[in-house]
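Example is below:
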Amino acid sequence: QLERSGEEIKVSERFVPPCLSIYSSELLVKLVKEIRDQVASRGHQLESYKRRRGIHTADLGARDMVYLLALRSINRYVPLLFHLMEYKQIHPWNVYAVLRELIGELSSFSEQVNMMGEREDGTSLLSGYEHRSLWKCFSDAQTLVTQLLDEITAGPEYVMQLLYDGTYYASDLSPAIFAGQNRFYLLIETEADPKAVVQSLETIAKLGSRESLPILIARALSGISLKHLPAPPQELPRRAHSVYFQIDHHSDQWVQIQKGNNIALYWDAAPEDLKVEMMVVGKT
């Protein structure tokens, strides 16, 4: 499909042709994986809350029960979404059916949307499956899933664990995290002395993309700056033995992270028990 942009005619970035497999359209695969990853991210956040509160304690309140019920719903659908996307011949109709089920279940925790994706006044936020309007179907589903998740908890939009590959702590990033006016945080979990961790990260460690770090290391240049936060933002989970930093995403080097869709931390003095996570918080 072509569309006019000023004086130019270009291929539409919001058109998905009718197809028999999700994998026939890169755009459709990207949309569905973004939904899957966002739901999984919220599941990880609620699991973290569950670990902190415990599920066998006698003092669970109403809020705790809502979170645990939401976690049960999310945990039911995340493995299913991963399973569906592992099959290269999966039909869009099958995936859309699961998304509608997910929306129906998440609506249990919403005061604004019912099981059919409708507001109280009857306004429909989600259409039935339209084979010739796949972009609208799936993008509307993504918008509604995001809205319903936000009603459950105002936590990180995305959580990515940076895994050690022998040289860096690194993670691939979805292009979706760069949209809007998101804030980016690094959560450092270790039983090492917090003061030493902060000093080392702010003076020795280097944060950048996998592609840019070798140059930064060779030339002894600074990476993207990290600002230590004595208290984490309310959107982030509170964890024991953890130190929080805000990532300067206005840095010139942030462009390299966006271009490569990855982030990496070089820290040759890292503690052996180190766990690193990047958390993305939407604008409130």
User: Anything to note?
Assistant: The radius of gyration is 21 Å. Residues 22-152 form one domain. The longest strand covers residues 158-164.
